[in-house]
Amino acid sequence: MVLDEVAKVRVSTMINGAPMELLLAPYQSLLGTLRDTVGLTGTKEGCNDGNCGACTVNLDGRIVDSCMVLGVEADGKRVETIEGMATPEGLHSLQQAFLEEAALQCGVCTPGFLVSAKALLDKEPRPSEARIRLWLAGNLCRCTGYDKIVRAVQRASEAGPERS
Amino acid sequence: MHPFRYVRATTVDEVVSVLSEYGPRARCLAGGTDILAQVRAGGYELDAIVDIKGVPDVMRMDQDGHGLHIGAAVPCYRLYEDEQVCSDYPGIIDAASMIGGIQIQSRASLGGNLCNASPSADSVAPLIVHHTTAIIAGPDGTRQVPVEAFCTSPGQTVLERGEFLVGFRIPKPLAWFGAAYQRFIPRNEMDIAVVGVGSSVVLDASGERVQSARIALAAVGPTPILATEAGASLAGQEATPEAISAAAKLAREAASPIIDMRGTVEHRRHLVEVLTVRTLKKAVQRAREV
Amino acid sequence: MTITDKPAQEYQVIGTRPIRPDGLEKVTGQAIYGADVRLPGMVHGTTLRSPHAHARIISIDTSKATAMPGVLAVITGADMPVAENATVDMGEEEANLNYASDKLMARSKVVYKGHPVAAVAAWDSNTAQEAAKLIEVEYGVLKPVINVDAALAPNAPIVHEDLVGDDLGEKVRSTNLAKHFRHEFGDVEAGFKASSIVIEREFNLATVHQGYIEPQNATALWQSDGRVTIWTSTQGSFGARRATAGVLNMSESKIKVVPCEIGGGFGGKIGIYLEPIAALLSKKCGRPVQLIMDRQSVFDATGPTPGAKVRIKLGADDSGKLLAGTADLRYEAGAYPGSAVGAGAMCVFAPYRIENTRIDGYDVVVNKPKSSAYRAPGATQSSYAMESVVDEVSEALRMDPLEFRLRNATREGDRRADGPEFQRIGNIEVQQAAKESPHWTSELERDGPDGRKRGRGVATGFWFNGGMRSSVNMSVNNDGTVSLIEGSVDIGGTRASISMQAAEALGLPAQDVRPTVVDTESVGYNDVTGGSRTTNASGHAAYNAAQEVIAKMTGRAALLWDLKPEDVEFAEGVFSAKADPELKMTFKEVAAKLNETGGPLNATGSIQARGGAGSFGTHIVDVEVDPDTGKVDIVRYTAVQDAGKAIHPAYVEGQMQGGAAQGIGWALNEEYFMNDQGIMDNSTFLDYRMPTSLDVPMIETIIVEVPNPNHPFGVRGVGETSIIPPVPAISNAIYDALGVRLRQTPMKPSRVLDALRDKQDSA
Description:
Largest sheet of chain A: 5 strands, mixed
Number of strands of chain A: 5
Radius of gyration of chain A: 16 Å
CATH architecture of the largest domain in chain B: 2-Layer Sandwich
Structural class of chain B: alpha+beta
Oligomer: heterotrimer
Shape of chain B: globular
Largest interface: A-C, 61 and 65 residues
CATH class of the largest domain in chain A: Alpha Beta
Order of helices and strands of chain B: EHEHEHEEHHHHHHEEEEEEEEEHHH
Number of domains of chain B: 3
Helix content of chain A: 25-40%
CATH class of the largest domain in chain B: Alpha Beta
Strand order of the largest sheet of chain B: 4-5-10-6-7
Shape of chain A: globular
């Protein structure tokens, strides 16, 4: 590795329920940390400036654009990514709903949408269509026109949080 | 990106100390939604970034008899998820709930919005019309500045070396106070304001006459503009469509927009007038509801 | 909703909605897209790009970058092999190799902002970026030309001194006009003379980008024996291989392209941008090198669709019959020749029978990034103009616009205005379905809340749909499942639609055909995933392979029964003896005995498919306009389209909805906002405004099925047509709401206000 002029920072964090000790360059984003340091490539980079939501993760219960958070800020916090959504028991009802409603075409925006939508349903189990659209406005999709994504969220909200 | 040092501060003095040491080569990190994009785009280089979110004063949000104290780094969602704040300060919530999308609102703060000093900042105009005071800490102690005086030109503020914005004090609204903020954007979310207008009114006890009014404009000048003449024009007037319309024309005159990729001069002036009418009406309606 | 031409054939798999085979990986974050590739010893590269739209490169000094600790390789245009001046078939695009190479890395001149001039490989991407900043380039800035008028003006700065233009067959030198062609039938002057209504209008469209969420990427490993492996998110691995081989002046057989999952393409990832650069960096440093484009470079330096100036003139008689039509299409090719103006000419008049037509197409070079295909490339531009003028003509005739379309609809046997004859097409059926749709037959409440006004508009689009070449391999597994090896990159669900066709042919459930998309060494040639061809052609190839499997399995069953193959038949997944129908075995049972009957069972299917016979689409849109701000909202949307046969209806609906949303963005807000130095000011997703979930309503879809005679199941292909109708439909709806016609995209709020003010002033 190249010698940086500044010291790396020690970070203790929890990623998808697993405790992690990391040594991070201060300027690395949380997105870069997840993809390159931790090796979780499910979270995607679309723009690197907070405008597309492809990098959405859940940080201490709030969804954020991980490209706009520094990796070092994860110290003492809980990070949840797409990789933490399914469990050995099965897919989250949202993941299942996205499959059943064909709510993805190229799939690159899908992790961001799932993380965002899960945060919504965790908070508001029965959102209206308008509320779903407002909540997801920070996630860009270029393939689907959003119709089936909204329907998938509605379907999952009717199904409840059970695993499939 | 030029490598920078990361400092997580826990006291005001720590922040002041880092900022004094590095001067313009250091910045405060609140939500990061402006600063990280700008550093990456090469807008400026930093040697240090000081994370202020560990400083209690900067994260406080509490009300007392005098008003509302909001720390500079309080993310927008904390504002609009607070029932009391929503009920007492809807004009500020208007802005807090429209900056970016949910992800941005998890991090972006009113303080960051002000310190970024973009002419199109959404939350500055409503703060102005709420008579908000900015509380600044620095090497010489703390001082206060009315929000309308905080920004001096695009990207520039009154902060001196070593100083940073700790928070805001918003006075408790008087009875018969109402405020609203609206902006014009081409989509329905995720855009920077082409024009933004914040209006507040204080009505008399009959609810018919305007005692005082404030109108502040965003994105139509190098800094947010307090349209003093327009606001003053309503004092003592009945809150009629004609009076509102006249005030809106004065607000239009107060604007000095430029042409850029988000809008032309003419359209911005036109939108100032339209949004002033709409926000004044809304402010009056809210004043009557209280 | 699906409307079929004939009584529904009984299909077991086709027309159902199974979960796509690659769905699990994609909803769990496990799918590997190009930027997710991680190889042992992999390092990172970046490009240095020109800040100028037009400039000579006077000198480049890379020494400081090379000297920086952590830098492993630096290249410039001088390191690029000299390509021959040959053309390469890329599918929906052709590439002149000289220009293709120059586009990837400039040698002596930069011709678009973002044009790469150097590239760096380093241990990590931050070091590579910091090193690139140390490369010193001296530019001699030249005046750029940024639209067709400026490019064609006398004394315009010339982008390529060596370009020889073709003006209706005549050679032209020292020009920015790469080509001017003409299609002409009948006598347009006579036609206009005989018309009682003649309307001529001009339209201007801004450059727009495909807007795929995933930026371009390439990872290359150059081995010491001269073979190169490239992992990339591409729409066509074989095309990428050919183009890379051409640019690097090496044999295709030395290059293996591994297609990764791809985060959107829409035509913009047919061409290559990073592959040869990654390869050369890898050659120089001996390690795998990964390059990923940043979003600004995607806007500046990949391939947006052409901006255009389009003139349409139509003449019709009192009965509503179109008698003559002319189209003048001037498209910006970008910095190198080759816009989609040809395709625009093929589609512009396609829905209408017009006896007398003349189409002039101009391919014009300007200092913008070289244009690339964008979903029905070229057709949206020409159709915006045509469908808007049709709206005016039908209004002048006081005819319902769908009735007008039915009156003039093309049908099988009619000649298209660029020459070819239509096969069986579903034009009339689509117009009819639109006319009877719940949307069209519903009352529109014209007054919205708070003074807003509503209007309704309609428009039609046509795309010819490709056929082209596909290859698949198939093998039968002992458990009765079938492995399907294909080479068609899956952008929107084609693993599902291709394997479903194989499953249908084999009488198997959809899940029992397991598709895999493989690299260029593991399957025969496949043309790009694009051109609306994949479900058609690759599905057809899979169907052919299935026929071979059935024939071979029949032989195995015969062997088991000691019969001749011709005494055994196969229907609905079951083999039976013709003489004794009680003697039967399922596909699974025969598969279980493969080892005893001859061993492995493999088959191939390949095809040079005939085209999809064209897909017509008509969209209906209700808009709500705020006359005080000019803001346009879409309140209701219906897309009608002829799919031929919807293999997986959900993915057909998805194509219709996705194209509609892109068209809505194109219509209302998307544009390259160029300053006069030829630089895009709005090169971020903040100011390049694509629709969010709040900007579109639910999009209703009506699938019409008029089978394609060239395909065993009637598949036409659907991917592209849906982007054509939205722009004119919205323009027509705004007219219906406000009485003003907008002839420029985007139809942004300021333009709506300007049009309203002009209308007021002239009143």
